[in-house]
Specification:
It holds the Pfam family ADH_zinc_N. It comes from Sphingomonas sediminicola. This protein is 30% helix and 27% strand. By secondary structure, the protein is of the alpha/beta class. The chain has two domains: 147 residues, Quinone Oxidoreductase, Chain A, domain 1 (Alpha-Beta Complex); 143 residues, Rossmann fold, CATH 3.40.50.720. The strands form three sheets. Strands 3, 4, 5, 6, 7, 14 and 15 form a seven-stranded mixed β-sheet that branches. Strands 10-9-8-11-12-13 form a six-stranded parallel β-sheet, sandwiched between helices. It has a two-stranded antiparallel ribbon with strand order 1-2. Helix 4 links the parallel strand 8 and strand 9. Helix 3 packs across helix 4 and helix 3 packs across helix 10.
């Protein structure tokens, strides 16, 4: 029998149950996918806790890679044996799953399954942030929170390839060194340094055109203080909880700031957008400009343990489940 992680009620990591499931045959437009590796992302925590409500019961997981087992009617361009990867539809914490063929992209032979599972959601998120939400330019200075995390390490490298200067916040000296070796020019250890004051110092008081904040509640308001007039606040995660509501007038008071809360799935909703995003990511990785760091792996059945490590900020780089 095929196994998967199932969630029957929102809650802590203990609600992640390893169960036998029936997958069935692919329907029209679907593929049955034998997964080789699955990625862990903070959005999985939001789904598990109910912050982003899901219809119960459900299987979490939004990123994976594997081999096509069977295709349903009206599927073109894919056949059994093809190596593929995806980011988006939940249901990833499973040995096998059904998935719409339109959400899959073919995986280059040079990219291993584990590497693909570690980069699809995070890598396309970085592409969205640096090229879609705000087109970072050569010579710009940006702030990246959680610079030693999965998204952070990719973002530091990609921004360096563009020619930007990267300021990044991390929690420890070890993470500061990791961020530095991946393109972060100015790591800030926020546990003992004031990141707003450090941004002021590093930029000579000029501040920044854009801040990328995946932390949320703990950093949101102070991130606004890092922006120069008409700067852009990009809030794309809530690792410390959702930010408190703010009056729109606060953005005016702090310099006519812009605020956006992007979600990757709105940037890859169309097939051509997905293909372009994946192609740019694959090109960056195959060129060697971006290296994907898998900081830790867990057997899929131990998903609860992995969630505890992620929420305790004990992980670095990407986390991958082996299937």
């Amino acid at each position: 029998m095929v196994h998967a992680i199932r969630v029957h009620e929102a809650g802590g990591p203990e609600v992640l149950h390893w169960e036998e499931v029936e997958v069935g045959d692919p329907g029209p437009g679907q593929v049955r996918l034998r997964q080789q590796a699955v990625g862990l992302n903070y959005i999985d925590v939001y789904h598990r806790t109910g912050l982003y409500p899901q219809q119960l019961p459900f299987t979490p997981g939004t990123e994976g890679a594997g081999t096509v087992e069977a295709v349903g009617e009206n599927v073109t361009g894919l056949m059994p044996g093809d190596r593929v990867a995806y980011a988006g539809p939940t249901g990833g914490y499973a040995e096998e799953r059904l998935i719409d063929a339109e959400r899959l992209v073919k995986l280059p032979d040079e990219i291993p399954f584990q590497q693909a599972a570690a980069m699809m959601l995070q890598g396309m998120t970085v592409r969205m942030l640096l090229r879609g939400v705000h087109a970072v330019q050569t010579g710009e200075t940006i702030l990246v929170h959680a610079a030693a995390g999965g998204v952070g390490l990719i973002m530091c490298q990609w921004a360096r390839a563009i020619g930007a200067t990267v300021i990044g916040t991390v929690s420890t000296d070890e993470k500061a060194e990791m961020a530095r070796t991946h393109g972060c020019d100015h790591p800030i250890i926020y546990t003992r340094q004031d990141f707003v004051a450090e941004v002021e110092r590093i930029t000579g008081g000029a501040k920044l055109p854009v801040v990328y904040d995946s932390v949320g509640k703990d950093t949101f308001l102070r991130s606004l203080d890092c922006l120069h007039p008409r700067g852009l606040m990009v809030s794309y995660g809530n690792a410390s909880g959702s930010p408190d509501p703010i009056p729109p007038n606060l953005l005016a008071q702090k310099g006519s700031l812009f605020l956006t809360r992007p979600t990757l799935f709105h940037y890859i909703a169309k097939r051509e957008e997905l293909e372009q995003s994946a192609k740019e990511l694959f090109d960056m990785v195959l060129s060697g400009k971006v290296k994907i760091e898998i900081g830790q792996t867990f057997p899929l059945k131990d998903a609860a343990e992995a969630h505890r490590a992620l929420e305790a900020r004990k992980t670095t780089g990407s986390t991958v489940f082996t299937v």
